[in-house]
Structures are given as C-alpha cells and as structure tokens.
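Table S2 (text version). Query chain:
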Amino acid sequence: MKEKIISKASELFLKLGFKSVTMDDIAGEMCISKKTIYKYFCNKEVLIEESTSMVHKQVHEIMDTIVAKNYNAIHENFEIREMFRDMFKNNTDTSPIYQLKKHYPEIYQNILSYEIDQCTQCFKENIEKGIREGLYRPELDVDIYVKFYYTLIFHINENTVSESEAQKIELEALEYHTRAMATEAGVQELEKQLKRIIN
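Corresponding structure-token output:
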C-alpha cells in the first residue's frame, strides 16, 4: 500500500503541483481514507520526499536505458530531453522544480545535491563519449563544460515558473551547449537532431 500511495502522490504532484495537491486529494483519488495515508506518512512533507525520491530513481533508470541504446552522444542528449518532456507534459503549466524550490526549499536542497552528483557523472560520460566519436572537440576541458551545462540547466529550472517555457529554454541551452563543443561532424549531427524534433 505504501508504494501505491507514493506512486499516486508522485503522479498528482507532477500533474497538479506540490503545493496544490492535498492529502484529501490523494485519498480521494485512491478511494482510501486519509487515515490510511497517515498510517505510512506522518505529514505531507515526508510523502513529498518519498515521491520525489521515487521520481528521480525512475528518471535515472530511464536515462540508463537510453544510454544503453548506444546512440551517438548528441542523439543521446536529445533522447534524454524528450524523455523529460514526455514525463512532465501532463502537468499544469507550473514547473514542478520551481514549485518545490519555492514551497519546500529543504526538500529541494536535498534533491539538488544528490541530483548534481548524478548529472555531473552523466554529462561527463556524454562529453567523453562525444570526444571519442569525433562529435565534440578533443581539446575540451570536460569538467568545465560539465559545470557550464548543469549551471545552465539548474538555473533554468529553478527560475522559470512555466514548465513549457522551461522546456523551450532547455532546448536552446542544449543547442548552445552542443554548438560550443561540436566539431564539424558534431554540428551536422546537431542540425539533424533539431530537424528531427521540429518535424
């Protein structure tokens, strides 16, 4: 039952926002009493922590699946971006990350420190792969470019209220990041990916 509550709560939080979903809403959606929820979670904050932790686990599992498909480095980044777009497409137009930062800053900070570690590793592996494939310039300082990119991405998500706006700016950031690193072959692959997602 605990897992079912976390799963339903995660779905509602992403769809309607962390602030607006109440314990009553979750109980109503699941046709259970609020008392049942409180049996497993002493308050809403604990449920939010468990839910965000589950969503992040799912996100990284999907990312691992995408990486395992062995696309080239640039294609891989676009596939990951599409996965995020699909995950958050049903929600209200308020970015879940922005809401979390605003209303539950402590939970947000905990996620952020964990997420930066995970993303640093992911971005680093992608850049090293792109260099091996001849899509990114070999003389790049990988650690600096990793910092550039996650600073861009986290800044966008923390400070953009609208989810659709955040996704639009993220696509621009991905193009900006890729062009900064790309060889001639990399630019051609980038143009191909941009064409693919626009059509």
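Notes on Table S2: The CA atoms of residues 27 and 83 lie 29 Å apart. The first helix runs from residue 2 to 16.
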